Amino acid sequence: CYSYVGHQRREQDISIGRGCERMGIVAHEILHALGFWHEQSRKDRDQYVTINWNNIRAGKAHNFNKHLNSHTLGAPYDYNSLMHYGRRSFSKNGRDTITPKKSGAAIGQRDGLSRVDIWQVRKRYSC
């Protein structure tokens, strides 16, 4: 499952392969195509989550880099975002790769867009 982030000035592929058929996963990839980065890639993410670099599988650390050009549009950090990775995404040892700093925060849901996700889409596209 993948999509490039934002307008590519060419055909925009969204890959939905085996195991990616859930509506939340499809919506996640569509949000990438619409220009949205992963929530834990925000430049202010260190205030909200800890990235456990030692638990990340070899060759997958780039998935946890901050994107300084990501635009939050003034939205608060959203643990419930469809664009947030789960606690053990790309884990090499079954341990957390991302630990929320907010006690009890659940991350990585793929059920649907959060309120903040919807607000950001509406703000970005004036709808």
TrEMBL record:
The keyword rRNA-binding is annotated on this UniProt entry: no
Protein name, as recorded: Metalloendopeptidase
SUPFAM superfamilies per UniProt: Metalloproteases ('zincins'), catalytic domain
Record-linked InterPro entries: Astacin-like_dom (IPR034035), MetalloPept_cat_dom_sf (IPR024079), Peptidase_M12A (IPR001506), Peptidase_Metallo (IPR006026)
Binding annotation for Zn(2+): 28, 32, 38
Catalytic residues (UniProt): 29
GO molecular function, one term: metalloendopeptidase activity
Alphabetized UniProt keyword annotations: Hydrolase, Metal-binding, Metalloprotease, Protease, Zinc
Entry annotated with the keyword Iron-sulfur: no
Major enzyme class: hydrolase
Pfam families: Astacin (PF01400)
Catalytic activity, EC: 3.4.24.-
Residue ranges constituting the Peptidase M12A domain according to the UniProt record: 1-127
Binding note for cofactor: Binds 1 zinc ion per subunit.
GO annotation, cellular component aspect: extracellular space
Gene Ontology BP terms: proteolysis
Cofactor(s) recorded in Swiss-Prot or TrEMBL: Zn(2+)
